[in-house]
């Protein structure tokens, strides 16, 4: 990686790589419900999973498969966070 390039991560839904700043990070916290929580600050401890914040990837992530693959554990529907696939308006 070049000194000036941004860190790259892979989206768990579409499997495309992107700059870390373009993706949302989720962390698996088995002691909480939902067990998968968004990491807005991108600093929570633990294994992270990265995903594009667009409707297509969010819809694909509604199944547990992308999260189970990323966290290397069984994920149930109750573990999944509420994912808002509606476009947001600024202002």
Automatic annotation (TrEMBL):
Lineage: Bacteria, Bacillati, Actinomycetota, Actinomycetes, Micrococcales
Protein name as catalogued: YlxR family protein
Gene source species: Brevibacterium casei
Matches recorded under Gene3D superfamilies: YlxR-like
Residues in YlxR domain copies: 9-79
Coiled-coil stretches: none
Domain of life: Bacteria
């Amino acid at each position: 990686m070049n000194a000036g390039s941004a860190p790259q991560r892979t989206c768990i839904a579409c499997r495309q790589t992107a700059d870390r700043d373009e993706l949302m990070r989720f962390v698996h916290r088995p002691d909480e419900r939902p067990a998968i929580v968004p990491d807005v600050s991108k600093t929570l401890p633990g294994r992270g999973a990265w995903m594009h914040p667009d409707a297509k990837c969010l819809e694909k992530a509604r199944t547990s498969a992308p999260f189970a693959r990323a966290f290397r554990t069984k994920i149930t529907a109750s573990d999944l966070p509420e994912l808002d696939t509606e476009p947001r308006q600024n202002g």
